[in-house]
């Protein structure tokens, strides 16, 4: 993984390179920003740059023996086989204490091929409580040459004692121009109108924009906005939303729709009446919880889309009440 695969985060990359060139490189970094901004890809590219030494440039983050990535493991052996075959797979809910302890055991030895070692935790938000406690010990007294990159969608979920030991690297939403560059890179055949819709819906998130095009979420996006603008007292618009979702959507499509709903609500907040804002915030928080659970729970797709529609309607209903 190289920085060329990360679009629109030049400022963060320059800050990282400046730190690498300094004599006193901080040992722990917190990559903070909304989900879908490319923090995970950045962390892997940053780790690759960190351990790069002379002729070792052929290594990447997935194969380098001195880059250790802690992420959600497959839920079971069957899901592990799917992952090995490059298929979508269901993952465990958290990054476990056993994963962290395994990483710590490896820290007792020196780096394999160079003088530096990188630990990427993606996302650190999902560490088990006991895993956080185990990690804290490593952060307090890291071995020489060991550097941590913690990806965090919601830094506030981490213990203050973890945050205080990290230098924060913040990730900003991408510009429309950068989002268009991402879409052109990954979906060069996409129509201009579809790219425009995706950029408008994404609220600066390349993850949302790419999923919008990949899963053709135009009908769902329009139904969501109708619910927010009109409410849905007769459940007609929620039926439209369910039809647009489809009878048997893939897990990736469900996750994409959840993230799109969060973006739609986030776009509503700045113009919301003061009495509506709390309802929008509550609905957004509920969608965030659903998004965290969705990768590891087998939700009924029909019930999930109705839940999403209901949360959107709850924000719209208060807006209507506020205007009367």
Automatic annotation (TrEMBL):
Protein source organism: Novosphingobium rhizovicinum
Stored Pfam families: DNA_pol3_delta2 (PF13177)
Name of the featured protein: AAA family ATPase
InterPro entries xref list: DNA_Rep/Repair_Clamp_Loader, P-loop_NTPase
Gene3D superfamilies attached to this UniProt entry: P-loop containing nucleotide triphosphate hydrolases
Residues in the signal sequence: none
